[in-house]
Specification:
single chain; 61 residues; alpha+beta; 46% helix; flat
Length: 61
Amino acid sequence: PEHGMMKGKIRMKKSEDGRVFAVKTVKPVDEEGAEAVFLKKEEARIRRAEKSRQKKLHGVE
């Protein structure tokens, strides 16, 4: 069955006894929402690349 485009996130949480588990949230999204997710991901990639370049220029590893 075709479900269309989805957006989601995964959050890590701790239980009361100290164990870790993941909470996955998935929601349907239209073309406009999918474009927003893509742009957000692309901007994050560019910021990471810039940060990496700055570290290399200043000799920080």
